[in-house]
Amino acid sequence: MGIQIHAITLAAALTVASAIPLTVWAEGDADYFTVQQAQGASTVSLGGTVIPYKEVTLSAQVPGRVKHLAGIEGDTFEKGTLLVALDDSELLAKRNSALAQLATADAQMRAAGVQYNRELWSPQSKQSMGGMGLPNLFDQMFTRPMEGMSGTRNQGVERRADLYNSGVQITQAQNAILAAQSQIQAIDAKLRDAISLAPFDGVILKKHVEVGDTMQPGQPLLVYADVEYLQIMVDVPARLRPSLYEQMMLQAELDVTGQVVPVRVAQIFPTADSQRHTVKIKFDLPQGVSAPGMYVKVRVPDMTAPARNHPVIPSTAIRYNGSLPGVYVQGKNNRPELRLIRVGESLDNGYVSVLSGLSSGERVLRNPANGVASGWASSAEKR
């Protein structure tokens, strides 16, 4: 409807001017919204905590003194960066000792191999006795053959025994090498445990040590996390668990800014808490809207409650008088009238539900101008 202009007399104009402010509203100057009725399941707001997508606590695996600390809380690092290092002087000394034992065992194995080859090609059992001249010649021609014939000596058995003894020496040397190598591997593992590398790109959330601290195995060094992707951890009552499924999209309200953001069900834990009767559920949070440790309220559908049946209006239609929310309803003679309401939950696309104060079918100003609103309020007060 266009702007309607009424002709009035000068006397009447002077009378009206004392009661109505200079800002005059007509129906065509504003955009009305017809109050609609919300349909759908009721929701319950559950508080949760923002947590990193990945978080690890790096602990000391070997005793030692902290000699290197990469940074402080808030510092970011790439995957593989050295974060904490313990003093490894004692481990390096043990490794050098194990290397010496390995070299000794290797030399013993080579010596045992030489002895085995010597016995294989030049058996000691067939060598002549020491000495020169006729006695030695007599022994080779008469004494040893007679010992073999009489059965008092068996050169074949002696040769096999000497070969077996040389083989045992080789085996012992090989075992000594294996033991030394195993010792070196164990020391190398401890040397790797003496340093803590960044397992992924992330940031230090909390450090428990300083350079110079003496650590024992099991003591925490620092907490490291990936804060690029965040999640919300919520303890959901068991009765609400059947209405949720993974990849389901819901809404969450940030505690600091009051912003409503979409969240997605990322993980539903398979078991419930036997005492609290709740199920832990993780929700994926959009990037850059919050920080670890923040409080967030997630709106979870409640299938056990009656269906939601509240009026819905645009959030831009609400004007606050102090702390009281109100809207301008189209009244008699098409004039907007201020009415206080009770605001419910925020909905999609910038709409909010109204718990009381409005009925379906009434018309409210979608986005009342400040001048119009204040003008009609002043007019109502004067009347």
Radius of gyration: 45 Å
| Unreliable segments of 5+ consecutive residues | 1-29, 130-134, 373-383
Query: What is the fold-level CATH name, i.e. the topology of the domain at 10-40 and 309-382?
Result: conserved putative lor/sdh protein from methanococcus maripaludis s2 fold
Q: What strand line-up does the widest sheet have?
A: 3-10-13-12-11-14
The proportion of strand residues reads: 25-35%
CATH class descriptor of the domain at 10-40 and 309-382: Mainly Beta
Order of helical and strand elements: HEEEEEEHHHEEEEEEEEEEEEEEEH
Please give the alpha-carbon distance between the first and last residues. Answer: 27 Å
Largest sheet: 6 strands, antiparallel, barrel
Helix segment count? Answer: 5
Name the shape in a single word.
elongated
Class from helix and strand fractions = alpha+beta
The number of distinct β-strands equals: 21
CATH architecture of the domain at 10-40 and 309-382: Beta Barrel
The proportion of residues forming helix, as a percent range, comes to 25-40%
- pLDDT average, as an integer? 78
